[in-house]
């Protein structure tokens, strides 16, 4: 197993020298100014008095207001900016005497990515002595925090922010698959655990705010950041986002900051960066797809941070929009955290969008819109100084500043910075970060993220006992960089696919390896539109791989993408395999040996040739540092793949946009007959649809039940079904529930994901699953963009993918008045009164023969009948302790209180319903009159 940490250390002899000279890190951290630190509280303003904001027992709002009242304008504005950490903007790793003359002498809102090891794109991790180990890192952040607590006037702690979409971005930490891979697990509890571990490790390292999860919904598969989304379904993104935030923010260990708000992930041609303008979406699509996850995660998980995006929507920059950042985010969604800007979002108002004339105007627009904290790779002075000028000149009111600072302070109080500003358990950081239990969850995530796309002839799993030689090739076979990209751990040990196979087959089979080709060729990406011939060197590399395949019993080809082809600002113009990868795959296939294709990549690829000619295909996304182990487990049957696609695989970029969910018939094209005499003019259908994924076993669905089948808009229904493992291997099935609004006032999606559950089943095992359908699954934005539930039928579909539907049922929604009338109409004529023992009167209608109403001679029991009912018989069950005969009468009333006897009789048998017919007439009430003592009526049926 290669260890990048060793390679990194060797990059700089200074690293080794500094490591040798590093002072010993204490097991616990103790600040120096002991007179500030009292039992149960800290004297942040050093006045010797426990102020309200220093009192942990005081109400949150009172603490905020007390602190705010003491702050000067300089101190308030310093809270509204991020200082990027070591080697990004901040040149110091630890506080220096000069800090008392810098802008942050009055405090700072946040310090981002400080000492997390990341320097710049393409550079190795930082060799600073305070980056690692975890205890030293936590100590260093404490020292920085100590400056703000002890050496600023009010002692306001700083919020240490950091990335964390696949584990906290640190020199080392538990390394998970990238977010797209995590989405393919369809496992809420697993995602919650990923969040819990990420947040816990972050806090132990000293961070208090993690920039995760990404709540963007994937729409254009060419987009470079497709690797960072959970998938295409807004429902799935919301569900997993809620789980991630609940894990991250467990016990307020850190604040979670979701990104990117709003309408960020669907720009023209998947263009990025400075070109990220004018998303081509209707307002209703923005609401249904892009706003939906934010709305639910804020309301249901209490998200404490939102990152405002640097794009516009319909000509209005999000960063300068009061509508988006205040009216919608705070007013409608109830967001109570703070908004931090993404990159140069503020600066773009004048450098890109042209809606502000200069930086000062951009600052004013952003803050008025709702921005709390500016975050970008620039000096904090560039934001704070114009902000102060605006307030002094009257361009911004200090009341607006107060509102923005309140939100910042609220988050700092909630995460406990004013009660425990330091991470004091330094030794605990070494024990916690990358501990064995965390690594076990990481391996589980890697396994569950893999999707089996094809398995013709049951080639997989491979039988290790019948294989002598395995040929492994491809640019991703021995590559580990996919697990070490930005926004996650930087220098962990990575098991490559080759190493995973070698470890699994040690002593059992020989593994032959040749790279075969590079990820891209020398002309890429131009080679996607011009067919350059193979060079002699390229041909030689392919030949080496082919020679290995000829000697082997099976060939494993590991292709896909990587940091060169996918990532932030790396959109593509094609979805084909880049470089010479297809030629390598075709050459290996031509040997006639069984071929398994493993794809490691950050977006769906149009692998049409492979789907047609390669017998087995596994999609692994970026499977994290445990990816090689997970894939070896799957190849040889130690783990049965159960991931399902959360994205659509188009056959070609010419089909884009091609997504789930879609409107009815929107992804259907013309004819189906190819050739000169046919009527087909373009490629139809997906290569692999949303929700698709195979297994080494099979599953049967049965017994769909919807209860109740009719509800009102604010009621819920329960959908139950059974799933059975009908194969010979244990495995996971992702059961998916879809919903379709049959008739609606506006066009709605053909299918919406309405529920999912990943379930593990042993061979022959059956489990019953239940799903709840409520208002959030039924509502739509009407013609006036108001969210309503329209009465009508909703088809519910359960299946193994969006196209593999196994069970169907219908749920009907009725408006409240209609439903109330229907329920009332279904009620029996059961309004009952009695001349005596009224409390027992309802017993005669409860369906139980052992509960009775009892009276004596002359007593009666009266029933109100449905309007217009013609009564001609009634069934009565009488009781009497002595079982002696008793006489009774049945009387009817047509209104006005007058009752006429229509039947007189004697009870001949007790404890049994006996029908008594009489001449029918229209009546409003029916009465049973007793003519003997101690006679009971047990049950009456009309």
Automatic annotation (TrEMBL):
UniProt KW Hydrolase keyword: yes
Entry annotated with the keyword Hydrolase: yes
Coiled-coil annotated spans: none
Occurrences of domain Fibronectin type III-like (ranges): 733-802
Protein name listed in UniProt: Beta-glucosidase
GO biological process: arabinan catabolic process; xylan catabolic process
First and last residue of the signal peptide: 1-18
Family, per entry: Belongs to the glycosyl hydrolase 3 family.
Listed GO MF terms: alpha-L-arabinofuranosidase activity; beta-glucosidase activity; xylan 1,4-beta-xylosidase activity
Gene3D superfamilies on file: Galactose-binding domain-like, Glycoside hydrolase family 3 C-terminal domain, Glycoside hydrolase, family 3, N-terminal domain, Immunoglobulins
One Pfam short name: Glyco_hydro_3
Keywords linked to the UniProt accession: Hydrolase, Signal
């Amino acid at each position: 197993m290669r260890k990048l940490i060793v390679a990194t250390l060797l990059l700089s002899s200074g690293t080794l020298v500094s490591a040798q000279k590093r002072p010993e890190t204490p097991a616990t951290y103790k600040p120096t100014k002991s007179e500030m630190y009292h039992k149960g509280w800290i004297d942040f303003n050093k006045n010797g008095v426990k102020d309200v904001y220093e009192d942990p027992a005081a109400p949150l709002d009172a603490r905020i207001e007390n602190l705010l009242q003491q702050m000067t304008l300089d101190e308030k504005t310093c809270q509204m900016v991020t200082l990027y950490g070591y080697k990004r903007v901040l040149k110091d790793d630890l506080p220096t005497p000069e800090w008392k003359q810098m802008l942050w002498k009055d405090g700072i809102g946040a310090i981002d990515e400080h000492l997390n090891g990341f320097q710049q794109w393409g550079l190795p991790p930082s060799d600073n002595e305070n980056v690692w180990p975890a205890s030293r890192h936590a100590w260093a952040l404490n020292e920085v925090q100590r400056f703000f607590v002890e050496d600023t006037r009010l002692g306001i702690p700083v919020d240490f922010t950091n990335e964390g979409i696949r584990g906290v971005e640190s020199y080392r930490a538990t390394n998970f698959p990238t977010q797209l891979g995590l989405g393919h697990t369809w496992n809420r509890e697993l995602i919650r655990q990923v969040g819990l571990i990420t947040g816990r490790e972050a806090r132990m390292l000293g961070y208090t705010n993690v920039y995760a999860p990404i709540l963007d919904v994937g729409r254009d598969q060419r987009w470079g950041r497709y690797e960072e989304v959970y998938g295409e379904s807004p429902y799935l993104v919301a569900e997993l986002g809620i789980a991630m935030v609940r894990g991250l923010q467990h016990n307020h260990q850190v604040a979670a900051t979701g990104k990117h708000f709003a309408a960020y992930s669907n720009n023209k041609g998947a263009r990025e960066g400075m070109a990220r303008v004018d998303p081509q979406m209707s307002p209703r699509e923005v609401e249904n797809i892009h706003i939906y996850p934010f709305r639910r995660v804020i309301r249901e998980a209490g998200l404490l941070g939102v990152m405002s995006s640097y794009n516009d929507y319909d000509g209005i920059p999000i960063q300068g929009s009061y509508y988006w950042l205040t009216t919608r985010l705070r007013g409608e969604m109830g967001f109570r955290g703070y908004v931090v800007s993404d990159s140069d979002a503020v600066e773009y108002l004048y450098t890109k969008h042209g809606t502000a004339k200069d930086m000062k105007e951009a600052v004013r627009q952003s803050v008025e819109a709702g921005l709390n904290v500016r975050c970008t790779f620039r000096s904090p002075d560039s934001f704070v100084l114009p902000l102060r000028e605006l307030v002094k000149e009257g361009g911004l009111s200090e009341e607006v500043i107060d509102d923005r600072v309140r939100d910042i302070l609220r988050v700092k109080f909630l995460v406990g910075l004013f009660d425990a500003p330091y991470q004091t358990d330094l030794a605990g950081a070494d024990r916690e970060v990358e501990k064995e239990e965390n690594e076990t969850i990481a391996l589980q995530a890697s396994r569950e993220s893999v999707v089996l796309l094809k398995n013709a002839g049951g080639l997989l799993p491979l039988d290790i006992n019948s294989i002598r030689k395995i040929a492994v090739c491809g640019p991703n076979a021995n590559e580990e960089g996919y697990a070490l990209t930005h926004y996650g751990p930087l220098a962990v040990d990575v098991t490559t696919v080759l190493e995973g196979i070698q470890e699994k087959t040690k002593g059992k089979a020989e593994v032959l390896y040749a790279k075969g080709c590079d990820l891209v060729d020398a002309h890429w990406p131009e080679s996607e539109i011009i067919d350059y011939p193979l060079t002699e060197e390229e041909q030689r590399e392919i030949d080496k791989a082919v020679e290995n395949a000829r000697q082997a019993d099976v060939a494993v080809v590991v292709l896909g993408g990587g940091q060169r082809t996918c990532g932030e600002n790396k959109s593509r113009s094609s979805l084909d395999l880049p470089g010479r990868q297809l030629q390598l795959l075709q050459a290996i296939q031509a040997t006639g040996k069984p071929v398994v294709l493993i794809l490691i990549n950050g977006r769906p690829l149009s692998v049409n040739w492979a789907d047609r000619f390669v017998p087995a295909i596994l999609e692994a996304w970026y499977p994290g540092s445990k990816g090689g182990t997970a894939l070896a487990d799957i190849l040889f049957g130690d783990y049965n793949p159960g991931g399902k696609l959360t994205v659509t695989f188009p056959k070609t970029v010419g089909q884009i946009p091609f997504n789930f969910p879609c409107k009815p018939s929107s992804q259907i094209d013309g004819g189906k007959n190819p050739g000169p005499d046919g009527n087909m003019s373009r490629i139809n259908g997906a290569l692999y649809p949303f929700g698709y994924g195979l297994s080494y076993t099979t599953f049967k669905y049965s017994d769909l039940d919807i209860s109740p089948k009719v509800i009102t808009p604010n009621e819920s229904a329960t959908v139950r079904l059974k799933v059975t493992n009908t194969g010979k291997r244990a495995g996971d099935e992702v059961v998916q529930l879809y919903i379709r609004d049959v008739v609606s006032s506006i066009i709605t999606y053909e299918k919406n994901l309405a529920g999912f559950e990943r379930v593990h089943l042993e061979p022959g095992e059956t489990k019953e699953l239940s799903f709840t359908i409520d208002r959030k699954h039924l509502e739509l934005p009407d013609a006036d963009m108001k969210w309503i539930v329209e009465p009508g039928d909703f088809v519910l579909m359960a299946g193994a993918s969006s196209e593999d539907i196994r069970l169907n049922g219908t749920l009907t929604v009725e408006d409240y008045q209609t439903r109330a009338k229907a329920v009332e109409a279904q009620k029996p004529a059961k309004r009952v009164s009695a001349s005596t023992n009224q409390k027992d009167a309802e017993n005669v209608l409860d369906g139980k023969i052992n509960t009775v109403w009892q009276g004596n001679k002359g007593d009666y029991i009266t029933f109100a009948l449905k309007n217009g009912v013609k009564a001609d018989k009634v069934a009565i069950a009488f009781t009497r302790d002595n079982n002696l005969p008793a006489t009774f009468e049945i009387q009817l009333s047509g209104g006005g209180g007058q009752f006429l006897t229509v039947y007189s009789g004697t009870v001949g048998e007790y404890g049994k319903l006996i029908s008594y017919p009489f001449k029918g007439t229209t009546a409003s009430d029916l009465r049973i009159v007793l003519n003997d003592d101690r006679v009971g009526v047990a049950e009456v049926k009309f």
